[in-house]
From TrEMBL, chain A:
InterPro entries found in the cross-reference section: Beta_hexosaminidase_sua/sub, GH, Glyco_hydro_20_cat, Hex-like_dom2, HEX_eukaryotic_N
Catalyzed reactions per annotation: Hydrolysis of terminal non-reducing N-acetyl-D-hexosamine residues in N-acetyl-beta-D-hexosaminides
Recorded family membership: Belongs to the glycosyl hydrolase 20 family.
Known EC number: 3.2.1.52
Positions of region (Disordered): 270-290
UniProt domain Glycoside hydrolase family 20 catalytic: residue ranges: 214-602
Name of this chain's protein: Beta-hexosaminidase
Domain named Beta-hexosaminidase eukaryotic type N-terminal: residues: 38-141
UniProt source species: Linnemannia gamsii
Leader sequence residues: 1-36
CDD domains in the record: GH20_HexA_HexB-like
From TrEMBL, chain B:
GO cellular component: membrane
One MF term in the entry's GO annotations: beta-N-acetylhexosaminidase activity
InterPro entries, sorted: Beta_hexosaminidase_sua/sub, GH, Glyco_hydro_20_cat, Hex-like_dom2, HEX_eukaryotic_N
Stretches assigned to the Glycoside hydrolase family 20 catalytic domain: 161-521
GO biological process: carbohydrate metabolic process; glycosaminoglycan metabolic process
Keyword set, alphabetical order: Glycoprotein, Glycosidase, Hydrolase, Signal
Name of protein: beta-N-acetylhexosaminidase
Keyword Hydrolase attributed: yes
UniProt-listed Enzyme Commission number(s): 3.2.1.52
Provenance organism: Linnemannia gamsii
Reaction(s) catalysed (UniProt annotation): Hydrolysis of terminal non-reducing N-acetyl-D-hexosamine residues in N-acetyl-beta-D-hexosaminides
Domain named Beta-hexosaminidase eukaryotic type N-terminal: residues: 9-119
Family, per entry: Belongs to the glycosyl hydrolase 20 family.
Active site annotation, chain numbering: E320
Amino acid sequence: MIHAFYSISAAVALVSNVFLLSLLISPDPHPAGVQAAIWPKPAYACQGHRTVQVSSKFNFELAQDAHPRLVEGAARFRNRIFNSDFVSPVPLGAEDIEAEDRSQVGMLMLESLAVDVEDRTGNAALGLGIDESYRLAIAYDEDLNTEFELDAKLCKQIAKEPFGPGFKGILKAKTIYGALHGLETFAQLVTNNPHDGTKEIAQTPLLIHDRPLFPHRGVLLDTSRNFLSMMSLYRTIDAMAMNKFNVFHWHIVDSPSFPIVLDDQLAGEADEHAGDASGGETENVEGTGDNEEYVYKERKHTKLSAAQPNLPLSQLAAKGAFSDKMVYTKKEITDFVDYAMDRGIRVIPEVDMPGHAWSWSQAFPEITTCLDGFPSYSRFSAEPPSGQLNPVHSKTYQVIQGVYDQVLPLFKDKFAHGGADEVNFNCWNATASVTKMMERKHIPRNKEGFDKILNGFTERQHEMLRQAGKRPIVWEEPLLAHNLATIKENKDIVIQVWTSAENIKKTVRQGYDVITGSADYWYMDCGFGDWLGNWTMGKSWCGYSSWQKAYSFNPLQGLNSKESKKVLGGEALLWGEQVDNTNLDSKLWPRASAVAEVLWSGNSDDSSTGLWDGRKQNKNTLRIIEALDRINEHRFRMEAENILAEPLQPLWCVKNPGHCNWPILDTRPEDLAK
Amino acid sequence: KVLPENQPIWPVPRSFSHGEGTEKIILAPNFQIKVQSSASSPPVALAPDSILAKAIARCMDRLQVKRNTTIWTATDVPVADITETTPTLAELTLIVDDTQAKLEYGMVESYAVNIGNQHAGNTFTQIVVATKAAGLTNAAQPNNQLEIPNTPWSIYDEPRFSHRGILVDTSRNYIGVPDIIRTLDAMAVVKLNVFHWHVLDQQTYPLVSKAFPDLTAKGAQTPEKIYTPQDVAAIIQHGAERGIRVLPEFDSPGHAASWGRAYPNLTVCLDALPHSTYAAEPPAGQLDPLEPFTYTVLDTLVKEWSGQFPDSQAHVGGDEVNMNCWKSSKRLSDYIANENHRAAYEKAIMPFVDTQPDDTKATRTMKGRQSGEDKLLELYLDRIFAMFIAQGKRPIVWEEMALEHNVRLPSSAIIQVWKNAINAKKVIAQGRPVILSSSEFWYLDCGAGQWLIGSQAPSWCKHANWQRIYSYALTDGMTEEEQKMVYGGEICMWGEQTDSSNLDSNVWPRSAAAAEVLWSGTKDPKGHARPLLDASRRLSSVRERLVQMGVKAAPMFPSWCAKHPEACLTEE
């Protein structure tokens, strides 16, 4: 029923879109946007009808003291442009070069692109909300005022101009990260002439003003369910940069494996952190005969007195990784973070806790509870293997502190993800050390009681994160399911909503910044059937999201303008139960590209002005037909860069735009125009 | 009875026995394989390019790979230490009854393996008795271990079904020749023996014809995305060396828009809109059965194909014929509607076939009056069947020909069932044999969302995970007589959303689940369903083996479950 509803309503919206478009822009079936299929679509663009050739001596003109990140980036893009033999299978691009013009005045040559960055030396740190805008002009000198402001008059004017001298390319950005996005757009604009292999840019003069709708545009990969090689992660960064994503959310540790190689911690090593990090008093209580130590924190801002013991943290990976090859060393992680930041991508780590923690148990069984719940794991966890951190054991916090001390500094971002999804109270309720402590403290063994326990854990965990200079992100449950006091008291915590898009509103109304990307639209792993081993009828718990479904999601749906400001962005999430190096690319791309465009420039066009303003998208219509040709081209563009993105349609459809529409739209745009 | 955890053979052999203790054999460093025609005869000298010699060389290569690598998920089963007295296996003797057996439907694929049953000091001689050459490729596979635990081993194996296939669609999206070659390699690992090559369809005509090169020049998507005669020969040869038949599909008379790119007068309703009225998917286009030129082309193409593809069967297509398409032509709608004009139309194409297809036993699929539409279809079918049968090919057609049209089919025709599982019995009730590919179980493309634009709807059919695929009991509810009419099955990789980028991970390891159903059946010899835990353990091992070979088989579950399959069950 739900599916039927979606398809009908979407189809109705699209029909009206087709009619509006055709009225405005007939007879050209591909009017709006830049001719080479820029993905994600720029916020504003206008262009003419001439083709310019990119000289073989072409170079990027950078300031003498340009930041090395920009210098290397420009070299990378130059290589990409000149090493590529990619020719789009989508018949949109450069083939409309007017032969008469060529013979009359010869080909216009673009010799360089001047890259002008306001923050020339790259002082602005890569982080949430950094200016990523850029302005790109390939136009006549005299048309360009200093800011080459875009207006309808200028757009009209450049469309009519004849060939002539004074043609130049300029890229302006506030930061080097904006400049990198501009270079990506420029690289996408340059196409290979299929006849002689020369590099060309069609539909010049052109002006692009571009900036993202949302500052947090992420991809989540899960390296605990199945291992992903460094090569797969690097390739993902390359693909993300092509889609102007800027956050790699690394769900690095979960229940199945602990793949980070840490060093053993010697006694006293961590004292300096312990002093202020924990902020909680530990109350040591005699055990039940197992010689266990129970800890429960009641008061804040008091010192953790105990010195840190020896902690064999190396054993977390030695015993908790799938094999000694399926691990990440600190060097690999820091190199990777640098590689991502070089491409304007922040890396945010998530060591999930206190649920999803079986993998810690192999090295530290004493800090985990309800392990190996089979055959009743489902009482204790969402999926096997079950295992949570023990919230009442002081060693738990020592190990977390030890892990954080080594892991968090590897990631330079100001944010760290604290996890906290799917904490299972049955697990703790079946753990004697937890329940005994609760009895001593007269904490009821009901939801409120366990919420209190979870609050104590979370408060302490977040203090450690903040001590390390990190602002916490958590999954939605601590707020929406548990209403934790420590979340209520700290409104700067970012909430990542995942169970359903409806929870976005609930969260922003409570005043929190939100990261969207819920299972009903942006879970890229859904729909591949139950992976548990004895259930032949098993479906995934969530349905497959085709690129069209992913593209239809508007993170601001139903929010007022004030609420909209609390939406930082979203993520395409690829959980790892059925994903590893073999199928990572095809599961993620190009569907995540649909997410990228929604986050960069929205999914709708303003058909009344011809210029498109993503902020007004609620009033506008889904631009899925126009997007199809671009995403088809982008898929092949990614494939040409060795990213094994999967096909969305038969190649015939790619090559025959407008002919593979859902039956209700089964009419060619050019027929509609008649 | 299940295989020991350290011998995860897939598909499971028909019958086997092994030592229950810790006894094992290690392969001698100079281990070799030789061939005899009987237990007492001297070794046969094999030509280096013979199928057997190549199979042995491949087996030795795989042993070498195994020596150098380990599969990380291998279950940790305690095994005895190797000591000085651990026996070694110096030699494997293949006893092949018939080295000339033809690769075809119904060929004998059985084999027997005996390891460690004959003592000779510390050295064992392994005796393999395989009855026909085709079985041999398979016989070599379970024994690729460098040490063979749980000796002595005794295996007798033969397939439940003779037709065990994968359909790969190379028309919706092109699949590169190396990708097809790799698919054949993977098929051999799980004893699949039919590569159903759905090479032509609405969207493209990538198979180069010598007689009509324009079919490809204008019907392929790009000049590179084609199959040359050399490519075809290489694919057929590669399959034959692995006991795999390459079975091409000459999909007609529907699904033929791609023919019209070069020869528009071969087709009717080409690119007609709305496409949903005229075809199952865009672009619309069907062959014109009243156009004499159609038969000129077909006659030549069928001969060319028959020379190219040696298999004794040929798939003739026949799916999703759309009568709206034909009726959009004045001539065809005239023929359908007006009995008086038929003779005149038929006369125009009479020279091409004036006899019934294969024999006098050809029968109509239904009783009662035949509609004008079906008369037109039958006109076409009589001719295309006759052409293939004249070339010695036994025709296969999709189920619509038997279940949805009242037309005359050759008595030899094999029907491929795809719409659902229960249609198998309906076809068999007509006395016709079947190949089963129900889309409820064995369509690998399902579940990836609607690919037509403007819909967020899910696919028309649901994703089948490996367990769903594994549960397809082909002959459940059939009498013994009915079961004999089930020639086998095929798992289908339709190509709308699949090309080289995701072929492997869409096909594997799920097709291996179908392979075991087809080779071993869904039940053990005592009639019990095979335990999924055992299957999951063995299949995850197959998956790792495929990945090691360079096949990008998708993971079935978190790697943790590969080591702890017993903990990754659903509670019931």
